[in-house]
Batch of 4 targets.
Target 1
Amino acid sequence: MMPVQDACACLRFSTDGLPEAARAKAVRELYERTNLPGKLEPLEPLPNCPVRADITKRALPGLGVMSGTFCGLRQATRRRGSVSSGEDDLLLAVNLRGHSTAQQRDRELILQDGDAVLGTRGSTGFTITLLQHSSVGSTTRRSGSSRTARRC
């Protein structure tokens, strides 16, 4: 049996203690500094928007769980084939509070309080625009699921 401390890796990141001018750079660098299994997808600040991120991500064997509050960010999920074979590719995001937009190919979903999106990386990946929202999400290995984003 694997000891508990080896079974779960955790990442905690917040811009709350940073000056406003340093937040965009810190968020951009987060992807490169993260080395958890099921790496955090890249975040990009939106132009002319205040930036805020408060993220907790836990990585278990075969499962990643993330919760957080986001403001003024865009998260681009890398397409299938652009990630290592060990990274997870079925993504579920539940919008707890606020609003966001999920896009894949020519489909766009506007997410409000309580809405969820389920998607795969597919050949194009997908993008979530996080204007001001709190969410919880998970990633796991895909097995025979559809390759498009859907509202749950």
Target 2
Amino acid sequence: MDQEKEQTTQEYEMTFLVKEGSDILCIKKAIETHGGTPTLEGEVRTITLAYPIKKETMAQFGFVRFTIDPENMAGLNRDLELDGECLRTLTVSGPFAKNFVAPAQRQHKEPTREKQERVSDAVTNEELEKKLEEILN
């Protein structure tokens, strides 16, 4: 039975906007209610909306990856549309990159020496004028 269930489930990623001050548990609860299993949850940040959505100008933005039976997606989307806390959702189906690194965990790379050397190869105005005079004469 487990093999049959695994074959019928598909991986999805849902980005969402929920009202500021709301808990994102409403998203995970809706997924679990429809037989889904959350597998990865991204960082949730408060953002200013470009335009009001349901009279809200600020929202919490995040994403969650989950597996669910594709037949249950219509019910999940309908329930989230009717939920007063959820402003917007966008769901895409997998496959997804396996090596996701949260922005807070990414390491800042230092500029390579090649870039630094290219900057030092810059020509001064005097050298450019001298070269122009050679070309024109």
Target 3
Amino acid sequence: MNKSQSKSNDQIIGIDIIRFLAAMLVLLYHSSYTGWAIKDSSLQKLTGESYSFPEIAQFSWWGWVGVEIFFVISGFVIAYSALKSTPINFAISRAVRLYPGAWICATISLLITLALVNHKNPIFIEQYIRSITISPFGPWIDGAYWTLGVEIAFYTSILIVIQIFGAKRLYHATAFIGLASVAFYAFLLGMLAHKDFQTVINLVTSTRIINLSLLGHGVFFALGALIQKSSHSKLNNAEKVLATLFTFFCIIEIYLTSAIKFHIELDNRNHVYGAIPALAWCLCIYLISKATRDNEIWGKYLSPSISRRVGLITYPLYLSHTTLVGVILFLAFQFDINKWIALITSAIVVLVISDALAQRIEHPLQNWLRIVLLKRFPSQTHPVQAQQNQ
């Protein structure tokens, strides 16, 4: 196999595109829905009185499901990465992936927040420190950082497993994480059967420990890992049952989040609110499952270099879009600019800035951090995959 083929095989074009689409869903949700429809949202705190977009609410209110798509992609990518890396290299790669982007985007968010908010509250500095250190507990300078603690909890679980047992136990670990999450949601369904709605609401919305323990989203990571395994080997019957079970409970989580997020009665017979984001999620999961097998087909229509660049935009876009959109909508509102022009302009500006951050600042900073960490923690000579064969 030549180098170009190896590079092509390492890149899954469909994953980059789906990751980008998930980020755009979150961008649409925050820019055109939460700023006016959800009281005290991050965007509303920045912009104050600003535009409202009820005309497209039916398309924007469910954009939060992009996060659930991210978690499945993360399970896929981490399983792929962990199988090909040593424990120390795995840890370094995750730190290099997360921290430089967080440092850059949190700094931008802090500066914009200080410029827009009238009172210079010392808590902003505390939120900034929590963000650049990716503290598992908020508040952060931007609400988007809540997912990073969940991601790190998953990475840490996988790191511990491959360090102690080797990669041969990777899928056992993700299955355990998924089943623990299934048990949690089965418990919630039992609470619903007994009409204990408040317990369900409290557990889903108010308990950070639930998120960090992966009970809340572990089922998404586990499904992503199984999809990754199916891309290179046939799943056995037990794994097929797990994939079906995980998919079902992912949909349960999406429905419960829809119901609670928008204050719909949980015993309401109208399930359309949960069905819309669930169907969008299912479509993306189907595409993820086909992404590896259809990589050559994706490559016929999309340049690998372009898709890679689009994929790299995703992280700074996700972390900085709320404050970037906030400052643009705030200024546009002050000058009485048409709201649709303001909305479209904000999306374009966010994409351009995110691309510039990824290419010009984040990438060099990642290279620097990688060098520093590799000097401090020299790479192991025996890959995890070698452990798998022992």
Target 4
Amino acid sequence: MDGDLTVAPGALLDATTPGDPASTPLLPGALAVDGNVNVEAGAVLLLGCSPFIGCTKAATFDTVGGNLNGNQALGILIHSASVAGNISITGGGGGDNCGPPPAPWSSDPMLAQQHLPVYTDLEDVSVGGNLRILGLQSCYLAALRDQVAGSAGFLGDSVADPDGNEIASNLVDGNLTCYGNQPAAQFGDSNGAPTSSEARPTGSAPSARWPRTRLGRGA
């Protein structure tokens, strides 16, 4: 689509769930946005389908030509997509709990069928600029196998799942910063590897490039 895409406050955009029939589900149509994607307060975005979410045999490789911004969004799930600019997610997340999810999360058939609590997850995402997730409060947060051309920062993120804040197997060309997160960045059960950062990591963010990596910790 031309221009920007905005998911309005309290709205839901599901560009992930495959089509019918359920026995041999089809891939959803790939979404290509020339401009920015903005996810407003209380809104939910599901972007990209892959074997890690919904699509068992292929991926859609959705694209965003500008930045992707989440401002107090309820949940943002991005899989196997590319964002030419920055990804910035500030606040939101529905609270530091794994309780029954509110609308519009509870209105999505795939999320409701799987009884999934609110979470934010970026997997196999290519980011042309910086990646920042700041002050998120949710059930779970993960950034796995992402490639970031700029710097990456995870600051003040609090999740209720003790297995949350899984930051692993990423490639970051710039700085990597993890600070003030609860729990601290970890591998969890992702079977991931340390994130590779071209610059010295700061905070609780051991990196594969530097010999500070500790067993059982992510980032």
